[in-house]
Amino acid sequence: MAFDPTKPANNSPDSSLEMRNQLNGLKDLIDAQQAQITALQAQNDAQQAQIAALQSQVDAQQVQINEMPAVLGGAKNIDDFNEGAGDISDPPTKLEVEEVSARLDDLIIALKH
Fold it and tell me: DSSP 3-state assignment of 79?
């Protein structure tokens, strides 16, 4: 029997059957709520596990991002690289072209190390 909030009526004689039915109805409501709480807790636990798995993926990707400059061979500090001096004539001479080529080679080596 379902719980009936209108029973027992005011000033009615006590009936053990009626009271038992009311208490059983209340117990049924409590049990139904407990089942809902248990189901929600299971959903919550599953979502927490998903969040933990996603956080692990984010952490792993962050490590990969942090290592990326080393993997890609990122540019090195070339503050000490001497850019050289001198003007290039128009048209450049063979010696000027060779100097530019040598400086370019030096720059590439500096960037690699």
Answer: coil
Could you read off the pLDDT of 56-109 as tens digits, one per residue?
999 888 888 777 766 555 556 666 667 666 777 888 888 888 888 888 888 887
Q: What is the largest CA-CA distance in the chain?
A: 122
Map out the domains of the chain as residue ranges.
1-74, 75-113
CB 95 within 8 A of CB 87: no
Whole-model pTM: value is 0.47
